[in-house]
Design goal:
transmembrane, transmembrane helix, mainly beta, TypeI_recpt_CBD
Length: 153
């Protein structure tokens, strides 16, 4: 059955973030009713054409239980990625958790770099320039809006 396993044994509060262009960090909490020996395993699939991959580097917390994962060399595609966390226990069956996520929505962008300000006091104007941060997905030019807050001294 699809929902086989003890109620409340599936993970909770699953979330992922992509940072520094190609690193993805996912975390979760153990199910409220999961036995203490439950171990969780994360798999993800970038698109339907790609193979499912298991977590590369698990983050362990209490009881050496896997409670997070770090993926390296992540690239963002146009399809929603599929995430699956299943678990195992000696005592009972563990429910799985799955979710589809648009990866571009979880990318944490770095601030702009190489900011320069050149002011001309005679013309009473300033030119402010910067480089947009690097991002890993395709809509590179449609994503950015900047707000400049100028305070006079």
């Amino acid at each position: 059955p699809v929902f086989a396993g003890m109620n409340g044994s599936a993970i909770e509060n699953f979330s992922c973030v992509i940072y520094n262009i190609f690193l993805m960090n996912c975390t979760w909490q153990a199910g409220r009713h999961a036995p203490t020996d439950t171990q969780y395993f994360l798999y993800w699939q970038k698109s339907r054409e790609d193979n499912q991959m298991e977590c590369e580097i698990y983050i362990k917390y209490e009881n050496s239980r896997n409670m997070g994962c770090i993926f390296q060399n992540v690239s963002i595609g146009t399809e929603k990625a599929y995430f699956l966390v299943n678990g195992s226990s000696r005592d009972s069956l563990i429910q799985f958790y799955d979710e589809y996520i648009d990866l571009y929505k979880i990318e944490k962008l770095m601030p702009p770099s190489n900011i320069t300000v050149n002011c001309d006091e005679t013309k009473n104007d300033c030119i402010i320039q910067w480089q947009r941060p690097q991002i890993s997905h395709s809509n590179k030019n449609k994503c950015f809006k900047y707000e400049i807050n100028i305070k006079y001294k």
